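re: ur question from yesterday

yeah so i grabbed the chain u mentioned. its 112 aa long if i counted rite. heres the sequnce exactly as i have it in my notes:
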Amino acid sequence: YNEVGLFRIKKISQLLKNIGDLEQLSKYADEYGGAVYYGSESAMEKFGLAVFNLNAGQISEVIFSHNGYYIVQAVDNKNGLLGLKYLFIAAKTLDQYVEEKLAKIKIFILAN
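ran it thru and got these structure tokens back, copy pasting raw so excuse formatting
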């Protein structure tokens, strides 16, 4: 369980080391949050303690949550709110992941 999501977020994390831009890699994530401002409590609930140690521009390691994986970049602090960008990959089984991909495949049958 969660192997596919974990593999995906680790791959994104590797790409980030070379690219350094969350927005550019957002197409590979299940969810992208660009410059969203959070109060301390809501940031803690969503991402945990890791985001409080980030300086502006700094990117976190992979953050594990109950429903998936996050990579967070600190933007700035305004009026006591934390400005954060994030990528999220949902935790799924391999079967769930393959089922979603198969549902998007179009198959055409040509018959005489």
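noticed a couple things. The CA atoms of residues 39 and 80 lie 7 Å apart. also The two ends are 44 Å apart (CA to CA).
anyway ttyl
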